[in-house]
């Protein structure tokens, strides 16, 4: 998943502003389309696939950022906000710009904003302050990433953190991307975890990423979060990943091949030599 950060993000924001100007949008007067409310919104929520990832969002993201004065929003593929988490005071501030469940925050409707751009371009994006097209959003920053249906690859929604400047930090964007990675794993397999091949002809083992303070692997016990991240990624890429690709997905340039090789070696001792294969790194067919 390549990200809309740095120069790439600046280009996406600039292009979005140009589209808004061409259609004659007024940043001071623009307002979201709130097209679902009450029972209509409730029915939309109940039937939406993104409902399946809420336990992941709540455990991994909401629990860590809401107390810092941020909002967490889950949107559908059209940029419509579905669920919102945050303290009452922060949510009240956001309501003044109609950042509320049922409102459409797509790039076409609202101009530059992180969830809208993430969904439009199918990349993780962060937008800071006055990069937003909507004037009332200039006091907010945000990071967002799209969520895909593992079976089809189609974007089915997005996950966003909105708040103060730190909402668009490197760390926050990495946390949003990690949440998306786990959310897509949740959609791919059994509720709450992923299935990992067992040693030899043994039955697959379940990696539970939700039910404990640390990830739990059936028949082994607690795993480090780094080992759990590697397993989730290798489950997501059955064709395998090179050391460089795995390092990039894990830490965006902050890990080298040697560090990844060491982590994989330690994980192989846990799983068994016939489970975690090399060149490229991949899980044995289960």
CATH topology of the largest domain: Beta-Lactamase
Strand order of the largest sheet: 3-2-7-6-5
What's the architecture of the largest domain, going by CATH? 2-Layer Sandwich
Give me the secondary-structure category: alpha+beta
Q: What distance separates the N and C termini?
A: 25 Å
Mean pLDDT: 85
How many helical stretches?
10
Helix content percent band? 25-40%
Global outline: elongated
Query: Helix and strand succession?
Result: HEHHEEHEHHEEEHEEEEHHHEE
Q: CATH superfamily name of the largest domain? A: GAF domain
Structure write-up:
The chain is an alpha+beta fold. It has 2 domains: 6-180, 2-Layer Sandwich (Beta-Lactamase); 193-283, Winged helix-like DNA-binding domain superfamily/Winged helix DNA-binding domain (Arc Repressor Mutant, subunit A, Orthogonal Bundle), CATH 1.10.10.10. Helices cover 40% and strands 18% of the residues. It has helices spanning 6-22, 38-46, 54-65, 88-95, 107-110, 114-121, 170-188, 225-236, 243-251, 257-271, and strands at residues 33-34, 71-76, 81-85, 103-104, 125-127, 141-148, 155-163, 193-196, 205-208, 216-217, 221-222, 276-277, 282-283. The strands form 4 sheets. It has a 5-stranded antiparallel beta sheet, with helices on both faces. Strands 8-9-10-11 form a 4-stranded antiparallel beta sheet. A two-stranded antiparallel ribbon has the order 1-4. A hairpin with a 7-residue loop joins strand 9 (205-208) and strand 10 (216-217). The longest helix is centred in the middle third of the chain and has 19 residues, at 170-188. The two termini are 25 Å apart. The model has no long low-confidence stretch (mean pLDDT 85).
